[in-house]
Design a protein that fits this description.
Largest sheet: 6 strands, mixed
Shape: globular
Structural class: alpha/beta
Order of helices and strands: HEEHEEHEEHHEHEEEHEH
Length: about 300
Amino acid sequence: MNDSARNSSARRFRRLELTVRRRVDGLLQGDVDGHALGPGSDPEELTQYQPGQDVRRIDWNVTARTGEAHLWRTRAQHELDTWLLVDRSASMTFGTAQTEKVDVAEEVAAAVGLLTAGPGNRVGIGLIDGAGLRWISPRPGRAAAVTLSRLDAAVRTGSPQVPLSDALRGLGARARRRGLCVVVTDLVAPDGDVERPFEWEDALRRLTARHDVIVVEVDDPRERELPDVGEAVFVDPETGLQREVSTSDPALRLAYATVAAHRRDQTAAAVRACRAEHLRVSTDTDWAATLARFVKDRRRAPARRTRRTP
């Protein structure tokens, strides 16, 4: 990386850090719920008292009702292991609003790295791009955010590229300790059969069986509605397939919007069915504000997330 590129990435990271600190910081930090019962601060399970246990945790109301001493065991608290899977494939290098989808994806992933920074916390990174599927070893959250801000834009496109399902399986193989997995992608992938149109469902379901998973879907307004710009040639960035259409046709624009809305509903339903949390960000909106709202809602409703054993 030359001096100009290094200075540019440093400025980019400083802007990102300032955005996160001012608007989103602290919302993901704090105590992390553990996956096993043990020393902690939050009550988890009421059990009958056994000699030698901490009498300070006795629940005297339950003890009085049952006539036998009961106490609360607490939820263990551990360092948080986070893995970020960032899609930088050809379909992500598209944007008709403020920026391209891949830029939003990298900034959101870097923000999560900053937000999960804490003593003992580690963040690993997976990248899907023109270099294939690459993995960057876990490191402190701030270091992971710096790494994301320094990614080489030249390898975003081109071959080889990896299906999202393969990347999710690879993520599951590397994230051995239960933790948080954040997948940032546009969910554009080859279609499967009519009954199951998303090839990544099985891999995502396996990942959520062990981890808390957040799928951050990045889109662009032109993927939802077509503007009236006359004759236009559309190119599929993943396959190179081209088609010329007349966007002045109102029926075509309506059909496009209808199919796009149905696809969005299908995608959201598929993510929910896999028991992953779903967040949508777009190139035409403020991703930091969207992320802040999501994190606030997530912290206010912890009961919606359940722990599952493999």
